[in-house]
Amino acid sequence: MKNMQSGGNQGAPTFTDQHAAKYLKRGFDAILKGDLKDAGACANLVLKYMPKLVEGHFLVGLIAQETEDWPIARKAFATVVDLKEDHAAAWAQFARVLLKMANYNGADKALENAVKYSSDDPLVHNVIGTVYSLLGDQQAAFDWYNKACSKSDSPLFMLNKAKSLVFLGKIKQARTALEAVLDKLPKNAEAHWILSRLERATDQEHIDQLLSLIEEADAKRSSTAYLYYGLAKEYEDLEKWPEAFKAYKAGANIKRANVNYDEKSEIESFKTLEEILTKEWLENAGEGCDASSPIFIIGQPRTGTTLIERIITARDDVHSAGELQQFGRAVKSTGGARAIGMISSENVRAAAKVVPKILGDFYMDATQSLRSDLPYFVDKLPINFLYAPLIAAALPNAKIIHVTRDPMDACFASYKQLFADAYFYSYDQAEMARHHVRYRHLMSHYREVLGDRMIEVA
């Protein structure tokens, strides 16, 4: 890149609006190609000469998101909305980043502004849909993805719509959407994986497609795991057990190489939970929120929590709210934490000092839009097992149902599942076994703490 200046020194080229537009386009195109180095160089050049150029800071935010540098992304999008308050795309991306940083109050406000300033831009609609999906409001996510698809024929928007349809149980519509994606992106690994999960395979046709795609794929890329998990599932449908296990193992190895599982931090967190959330702590925690509508179903993933939810919500006075992130949000927000990912020892200590009623009220406020007018609702996020004593203190009238399964069955069921952004321990059999032992030990402690407050279903 040639050096330019914004001033008018004799003999030196001037950095004009046309130059800025050129390098911004190059930067945005570079992100799409995965060339973050060139994208960063373009952003730096533009902002060197035009430090208040809105789209320059927006480009920085997008680059930082790609590298998961959340503090830089937050600063960049905050700068954009300071310079241009009605920048809906920046508000939407800002909300997404703040969620990643566990700044839930800030994320809610940013999302409100994204919705407020959104116009007919399908890119903005798509990001708003993604934020709602992260919040667990799948119906709202679908509505925004649908808006995006009505304004654009982007297959990536259609893929998001398909995923929301799966969440909502609209399988036929999801299949139609996935077929539309694959018409335009026949090698899209995620679409193939979702398609393989919709119905039971009865022949080799899609397996042959997956094998062909695997031959062409980069074995180190995280997206290749989708192909192996789809292949394994269809082999399993056809009762080709050795082939299925081999494919699951290959997919899990790829996924494990692309995630950051901090086992040491998990060990410390579990130890702190057991040390602090004791029977004595619960007895002296203080008054909680008197709401009686929540029913929490907790445990490990793939242990039958969905089955129990369906049994309970078969009653006409119980609403299924899905797998909600809101209690974890409440724990971190009321404790003033800004940790990303699994609850840390610091989060635990802070949460244990929060007045239970504040925690309970925060949760009930955060779930208000996700509840119906029915007397009860089910929150079926398995990982809420971490917070069982906090739930009991914050919502003393809530029901807590702990679902258990044979350890081997539970672990293998998780090993076969490709999770979106959670349960990183599940891609290595030894790590998963150690995690499961910690989980069972912690729940044994919670059983003593909670007594009859926790209903157990095996």
Short structural summary:
With 458 residues, the chain is mainly α. The protein has helices spanning 17-33, 36-49, 54-66, 70-83, 88-100, 104-117, 122-135, 138-151, 155-167, 171-184, 189-198, 205-216, 224-237, 241-257, 263-276, 279-283, 305-313, 326-334, 345-352, 356-366, 388-394, 407-415, 429-450; strands at residues 294-299, 318-320, 376-379, 399-403, 454-457.
What can you see in these coordinates?
This protein starts with 16 loop residues before the first helix and ends with a strand. Strands 2-3-1-4-5 form a five-stranded parallel beta sheet, sandwiched between helices. The radius of gyration is 24 Å and the shape is globular. It is built from 23 helices and five strands. 44% of the residues are buried. It has a domain at 263-457: 3-Layer(aba) Sandwich (Rossmann fold). By secondary structure, it is mainly alpha-helical.
Provide the fold topology.
Layout: H1 17-33, H2 36-49, H3 54-66, H4 70-83, H5 88-100, H6 104-117, H7 122-135, H8 138-151, H9 155-167, H10 171-184, H11 189-198, H12 205-216, H13 224-237, H14 241-257, H15 263-276, H16 279-283, E1 294-299, H17 305-313, E2 318-320, H18 326-334, H19 345-352, H20 356-366, E3 376-379, H21 388-394, E4 399-403, H22 407-415, H23 429-450, E5 454-457
Parallel strand pairs: 1-3, 1-4, 2-3, 4-5
Helix pairs in contact: 1-2, 1-3, 2-3, 3-4, 4-5, 5-6, 5-7, 7-8, 8-9, 9-10, 10-11, 11-13, 12-13, 13-14, 15-19, 15-23, 18-20, 20-21
Distance between the termini: 64 Å
Mean pLDDT: 94
Number of helices: 23
Quote the beta fraction.
Answer: under 5%
Major β-sheet profile: 5 strands, parallel
| Structural class by SSE content | mainly alpha
CATH-assigned fold name of the domain at 263-457: Rossmann fold
Which radius of gyration do the C-alpha atoms yield?
Answer: 24 Å
CATH architectural label of the domain at 263-457: 3-Layer(aba) Sandwich
User: How many strands appear in the DSSP assignment?
Assistant: 5
CATH hierarchy, class of the domain at 263-457: Alpha Beta
Strand order of the largest sheet: 2-3-1-4-5
Spans where pLDDT lies below 50 across 5 or more residues: 6-10
CATH 4th-level superfamily of the domain at 263-457: P-loop containing nucleotide triphosphate hydrolases
Q: What level of helicity do the residues show?
A: 55-70%
Instruction: State the order of secondary-structure elements, H for helix, E for strand.
Output: HHHHHHHHHHHHHHHHEHEHHHEHEHHE
- Approximate shape: globular
